[in-house]
Specification:
- With about 130 residues, this protein is α+β, with helices and mostly antiparallel strands.
- It has a single domain, classed as Bit1 (3-Layer(aba) Sandwich).
- The protein contains 4 helices and 5 strands; from the N terminus they run E-H-H-E-H-E-E-H-E.
- It has a 5-stranded mixed beta sheet, with helices on both faces.
- It starts with 6 loop residues before the first strand and ends with a strand.
Protein backbone atom coordinates (compact mmCIF):
# COMPACT_ATOMS: atom_id res chain seq x y z
CA UNK A 1 0.00 0.00 0.00
CA UNK A 2 1.13 3.57 -0.67
CA UNK A 3 2.59 5.43 2.29
CA UNK A 4 0.37 8.10 3.85
CA UNK A 5 3.20 10.61 3.44
CA UNK A 6 3.19 10.03 -0.31
CA UNK A 7 -0.52 10.73 -0.89
CA UNK A 8 -2.35 14.03 -1.09
CA UNK A 9 -5.18 15.92 -2.69
CA UNK A 10 -4.65 19.33 -4.27
CA UNK A 11 -7.48 21.85 -4.26
CA UNK A 12 -7.24 24.50 -6.96
CA UNK A 13 -9.19 27.73 -6.42
CA UNK A 14 -9.70 30.62 -8.80
CA UNK A 15 -8.38 33.79 -7.22
CA UNK A 16 -9.56 36.09 -10.05
CA UNK A 17 -13.20 35.75 -8.95
CA UNK A 18 -12.52 37.62 -5.70
CA UNK A 19 -14.99 35.38 -3.85
CA UNK A 20 -15.80 36.10 -0.24
CA UNK A 21 -13.55 34.03 2.03
CA UNK A 22 -16.42 31.80 3.16
CA UNK A 23 -17.40 31.18 -0.46
CA UNK A 24 -13.83 30.18 -1.31
CA UNK A 25 -13.77 27.75 1.60
CA UNK A 26 -17.14 26.26 0.62
CA UNK A 27 -16.05 25.81 -3.00
CA UNK A 28 -12.83 24.12 -1.91
CA UNK A 29 -14.80 21.83 0.40
CA UNK A 30 -17.17 20.91 -2.45
CA UNK A 31 -14.17 20.08 -4.61
CA UNK A 32 -12.47 18.02 -1.92
CA UNK A 33 -15.54 15.92 -1.20
CA UNK A 34 -16.65 15.46 -4.82
CA UNK A 35 -14.66 12.28 -5.42
CA UNK A 36 -16.13 10.47 -2.39
CA UNK A 37 -19.62 11.91 -2.83
CA UNK A 38 -19.76 10.52 -6.35
CA UNK A 39 -18.78 7.08 -5.10
CA UNK A 40 -21.33 7.13 -2.28
CA UNK A 41 -24.15 8.15 -4.64
CA UNK A 42 -23.25 5.35 -7.04
CA UNK A 43 -23.08 2.84 -4.19
CA UNK A 44 -26.52 3.91 -2.98
CA UNK A 45 -27.79 3.34 -6.52
CA UNK A 46 -26.51 -0.25 -6.39
CA UNK A 47 -23.11 0.01 -8.09
CA UNK A 48 -21.12 -2.65 -6.25
CA UNK A 49 -17.80 -1.32 -7.62
CA UNK A 50 -18.39 2.29 -6.57
CA UNK A 51 -16.51 2.10 -3.29
CA UNK A 52 -13.48 0.34 -4.69
CA UNK A 53 -10.53 2.63 -3.95
CA UNK A 54 -7.04 2.67 -5.39
CA UNK A 55 -4.21 1.92 -2.95
CA UNK A 56 -3.38 5.65 -2.84
CA UNK A 57 -7.00 6.56 -2.06
CA UNK A 58 -7.16 3.88 0.65
CA UNK A 59 -4.00 5.25 2.20
CA UNK A 60 -5.39 8.80 2.13
CA UNK A 61 -8.70 7.78 3.73
CA UNK A 62 -6.92 5.76 6.42
CA UNK A 63 -4.32 8.46 7.00
CA UNK A 64 -4.24 12.19 7.43
CA UNK A 65 -6.35 13.43 4.49
CA UNK A 66 -3.42 15.63 3.39
CA UNK A 67 -4.56 18.57 1.29
CA UNK A 68 -2.72 21.41 -0.39
CA UNK A 69 -4.51 24.52 -1.67
CA UNK A 70 -3.18 26.33 -4.71
CA UNK A 71 -4.48 29.16 -6.85
CA UNK A 72 -5.01 30.02 -10.46
CA UNK A 73 -5.94 33.37 -11.95
CA UNK A 74 -8.49 32.45 -14.62
CA UNK A 75 -11.15 30.01 -15.71
CA UNK A 76 -8.88 28.91 -18.55
CA UNK A 77 -6.07 28.07 -16.10
CA UNK A 78 -8.51 26.11 -13.90
CA UNK A 79 -9.80 24.13 -16.87
CA UNK A 80 -6.23 23.50 -18.07
CA UNK A 81 -5.14 22.06 -14.70
CA UNK A 82 -8.27 19.91 -14.55
CA UNK A 83 -7.67 18.58 -18.08
CA UNK A 84 -3.96 17.91 -17.40
CA UNK A 85 -4.86 15.88 -14.32
CA UNK A 86 -7.32 13.75 -16.26
CA UNK A 87 -4.79 13.28 -19.09
CA UNK A 88 -2.26 12.12 -16.46
CA UNK A 89 -4.75 9.52 -15.20
CA UNK A 90 -5.50 11.38 -11.97
CA UNK A 91 -9.07 11.79 -10.80
CA UNK A 92 -10.12 15.44 -10.88
CA UNK A 93 -13.45 17.08 -10.15
CA UNK A 94 -14.32 20.52 -11.49
CA UNK A 95 -16.80 22.50 -9.39
CA UNK A 96 -19.21 24.95 -10.99
CA UNK A 97 -21.08 27.18 -8.58
CA UNK A 98 -24.76 27.70 -9.35
CA UNK A 99 -24.45 31.47 -9.03
CA UNK A 100 -27.28 31.87 -6.53
CA UNK A 101 -25.28 33.83 -3.93
CA UNK A 102 -22.50 35.29 -6.08
CA UNK A 103 -21.75 35.71 -9.78
CA UNK A 104 -25.11 37.33 -10.63
CA UNK A 105 -26.95 34.07 -11.20
CA UNK A 106 -24.41 32.83 -13.75
CA UNK A 107 -23.04 29.31 -13.19
CA UNK A 108 -19.29 29.79 -12.70
CA UNK A 109 -16.40 27.30 -12.49
CA UNK A 110 -14.70 28.07 -9.17
CA UNK A 111 -12.39 25.23 -8.18
CA UNK A 112 -11.31 21.67 -8.69
CA UNK A 113 -9.79 18.93 -6.60
CA UNK A 114 -7.08 16.71 -7.98
CA UNK A 115 -6.69 13.35 -6.30
CA UNK A 116 -6.25 11.98 -3.75
CA UNK A 117 -3.36 10.19 -5.42
CA UNK A 118 0.38 9.72 -5.25
CA UNK A 119 2.00 13.07 -4.50
CA UNK A 120 4.59 12.72 -7.26
CA UNK A 121 1.88 12.19 -9.89
CA UNK A 122 -0.07 15.21 -8.67
CA UNK A 123 3.07 17.36 -8.43
CA UNK A 124 3.62 16.78 -12.14
CA UNK A 125 0.33 18.60 -12.76
CA UNK A 126 0.18 21.20 -9.96
CA UNK A 127 3.77 21.61 -8.79
CA UNK A 128 4.22 24.94 -10.56
CA UNK A 129 1.08 26.53 -9.10
CA UNK A 130 1.29 29.13 -6.35
CA UNK A 131 0.20 28.11 -2.86
CA UNK A 132 -3.05 29.72 -1.79
Amino acid sequence: MTSVADVKQVIVIRKDLKMRRGKEIAQGAHASMAWMSLRLRRALEGDSEALRLTPAQQSWVQGSFAKVCVRVDSEEALRDVHAKAIEAGIESHLITDSGRTEFGGVPTPTSCAIGPDDATKIDGVTGSLELY
